[in-house]
Design brief:
The chain is an alpha+beta fold. The chain has 3 helices and 11 strands; from the N terminus they run αββββββββββααβ. It is globular, with a radius of gyration of 19 Å. This is Cupin type-2 domain-containing protein.
Amino acid sequence: MNMFKPIILSALIALALLISPGHAHDFGQHETDAATDGPRTATVVHADDPRKKIGGGQDQFDLLVSGAETDGQYFLMEAVITPGGRAPEHVQTREEEGFYILSGTLNFYADGQQVIARAGTFINIPKGVPHYFENVSGEDAKMLILLSPSGLEHWFEAAGEDPANARALGEAEYGLEFIQDFPAQD
């Protein structure tokens, strides 16, 4: 039995290397998220730095860090969800998603459970779990949204440019599955 320990250990190390974060782009990532040649440097985003707006509709999504800046590991955006704003119920088949509430209150629904999320609340949604959120309060809610691996930020960009085709594009190219329709736009 002891002679198999080095073989098993070697196999586990090889498996870990194959599925390590450095290889995340091999699992459905867009090629544009792969790192460029040369060493990476730290990314710093200051509060007063210009932000790239992505997405569309009544809510605001600002890209803070793209997959190109994280070697495809994740992207981070800040969202302001206005009263009545919501995401349709959906499933990400490729990404894990984390939400950190900065201000306001949002109702989150995930896997059949409701969570009232106020400032300081963190919610993690594993890939494959149906979820949505809505702002039923009378004030804006602000949150950070992190998705890993990156790539879905490109859908937000495309959806902002062509909201009428956001659902079809998300389902065809980005592994999104929508359970509800998008909210009506004013």
